[in-house]
Amino acid sequence: MRLVAAELVDSREILPGQWLQSFHAPALASGSRAGQFVHVRAGDWSGLILRRPFSFNTVDAATGIITIHFRTVGRGTDWFTRLRAGDTIDMLGPLGRPFEVDSRSRHLLLVAGGLGIAGVRMLADEAVRDGRQVVLLFGAANARDVYPSSLLPDEVEYVVATDDGSLGHHGFVTELVPAYEAWADQAFACGPGPMLRALATLAAGRRGRLGVARLGRKRGAGKVDPPGSPHARRKAFLQVSMEQNMGCAVGACLGCVVMSTGGTPQRVCREGPVFASEEIAWEAGW
Amino acid sequence: MKAKRRVVTSADRTTARSKRTPTVRRQKSAIVSGSPAATRAAPVTPPGSRRAGDGPGPGLGADASAVDLTVDLAPAHGGLRLANPILVASGTFGYGIEYGDVVDVARLGAICCKGTTLKPRIGNVPPRVTETPGGMLNSIGLQNPGVDAVVEKYAPLWQAWRTPVLVNVAGESIADYVEVVRRLDGVPGIAGIELNISCPNVGKGGIQFAIDADAAGAVTAAVRRATDLPLLVKLSPNVADVRPIARAIADAGADALTAVNTLSGIAVAVDRRRPLLGNVFGGVSGPAIKPIALRVVYEVCQVVDIPVVGIGGITSLDDVLDYLAVGAVAVQVGTAVFADPTLPARLVDELALAAAHAGHSSYRSFIGTALPRKPAAGSAKGVEYRP
């Protein structure tokens, strides 16, 4: 965790109301992993008190450039869009824990709903770099909001669903998942709460549907990893990147919690934002 | 009654500047660290010189590192000596370890840890925080692992720190408070207690301790009997008149007061169909509440003799000086830590620099300068001329 001054290099509105900004921040670009985030300070002239958390969208250690992708939802994000190249803003990061990819996983299924693409985008880069096959399922309200394929690595298979059927599959992105669940070794998702909940239900019933016999002894099958540990998460089929209103983003204020199946609130900023889907108590109403 | 000395001695602490300006203003005697009864001479700040760091002052050559920033928050009992008057507020700094190496905790005057209760609490349903104009609204619901876990897990760490850690204690009944404090008493690494009395008193129909002078006094007295640790009590601003409550707490034996806790407020969800926070009600903090908190400190400082720690919306040195001017001897930085974790340590440097520029040997010369002059004691003879 470092406090760094990041210089804006490029700012583009890639979709209506959605922006992609590149910052020069070498200290963040090296050593950050997919799923982690930065906590960015908006100008305090406007009475904006809290920082804003953004997932790393892409990270280039060679050039020291990181990008963030966000939608303008209020005064804070609106302020960011008015930054000019050369402006410097204050970033705290990298924060949170990353996606855990099992070294034996060959096929990764990424599921993103809307702006959730910002949470899993960097994982596609990492997976392609490591020689894994990646399918990205993307859901949006309509064709207007579909993430442009030109911004994705060529190696990624990109499947789109829209709620109104204006592009790709007509329906929710979760309806595409059963076609890939047998192929995938691991799945990673980021998006609206209902989408994640539906995916968690699918993931919980996956083994029963696929009928995979557990023959022999798998590596590490004997010992039980404590829930939430990197090992336990690596073994989980589905990992989700959660969202919650955030205060400090370092675990001090306990503002951004989600309820775990263990009955103790977990901090999205510290234990998360990535959780194994079975760690989250989806029905707790939190 | 206050110790009212008529004779103003020229204390040796004051520098050449105060000798050049013979006009003196009487200061509250109780706030003088180390020598509570001593009355000091302090130079009157010229009007319009609110920003003490501006421009070359008479003491430009003064060395900021030579400025005395120490403060004692419990001059009456035992003593709670801090290296500087900049504290971090409870709930914004966790247990002091969360910010890792981004913040050097050794630079802070003291740390108030997250609110601690007898039993572990899971806290309120999220969303728990949201931004409001010039501030934030939070309703964490006192999530904490319980006093035993805090003592076991964090106290050994704190013991190794030079920076004192005050444990913020919350409870639902007087017995709760007393039990928590008893378990904290004598634990190495715990420098003091800060009582959060803005909790509903379950035994008395859920009325907050902080809004009732009798209840506030009773819980303070009970805790005072249970421990010799320095005891701070945090006042709530959600009352019509804070002065009787402050007086009751001071009379019950508190070493210092913290003013203030958050103001009660709500926010509405984006879809306008329900309140935003899971708990509906939350506490407003940040620069938005600073005028209110300043008013409370101003009022409280005039009715109690114990030190008052100001808190509410401090984001810059000017805010610190404002709180000192209305009588606070120290300040806590809260919400601003979220935006800028390095702010408290920077304020320490800036305060020292401001004192040096103004020609003060101690930051204490800033304290109480905006308080009204106390009326002279009435003459026993009935008539008295003062030329």
Plain-language structure description:
The complex is a heterodimer of chains A (286) and B (387). With 286 residues, chain A is α/β, with parallel strands linked by helices. Chain A folds into two domains: 2-95, Beta Barrel (Elongation Factor Tu (Ef-tu), domain 3); 107-212 and 226-284, Nucleotide-binding domain of ferredoxin-NADP reductase (FNR) module (Rossmann fold). Chain A has five helices and 16 strands. A seven-stranded antiparallel beta sheet of chain A has the order 4-3-7-1-2-6-5. A seven-stranded mixed beta sheet of chain A has the order 11-10-9-8-12-13-16, with helices on both faces. Chain A is globular, with a radius of gyration of 19 Å. By secondary structure, chain B is of the alpha/beta class. Chain B has a single domain, classed as Aldolase class I (TIM Barrel, Alpha-Beta Barrel), CATH 3.20.20. In chain B, the strands form four sheets. Chain B has an eight-stranded parallel beta barrel, surrounded by six helices. Chain B is globular, with a radius of gyration of 21 Å. Chain B starts with 15 loop residues before the first helix and ends in a 30-residue tail after the last helix.
Query: Major beta sheet of chain A, specifics?
Result: 7 strands, antiparallel
Q: What low-confidence regions of chain A span 5 or more consecutive residues with pLDDT below 50?
A: none
Distance between the termini of chain A: 28 Å
Level-2 CATH architecture of chain B: Alpha-Beta Barrel
User: How many separate domains make up the residues of chain B?
Assistant: 1
Largest interface: A-B, 34 and 39 residues
Distance between the terminal alpha carbons of chain B, to the nearest Å? 28 Å
The best one-word shape of chain B is globular
Query: What would CATH call the homologous superfamily of chain B?
Result: Aldolase class I
Count of separate structural domains of chain A:
2
User: Roughly what is the average pLDDT of chain B, rounded to an integer?
Assistant: 82
State the helicity of chain A in percent bands. 10-25%
Strand order of the largest sheet of chain B: 3-4-7-8-11-12-15-16
Beta-strand level of the residues of chain B, as a percent range? Answer: 5-15%
- For the report, how would you describe the main beta sheet of chain B? 8 strands, parallel, barrel
Radius of gyration of chain B: 21 Å
Shape of chain A: globular
Give the SSE order of chain A as H and E letters.
EEHEEEEHEEHEEEEHHEEEE
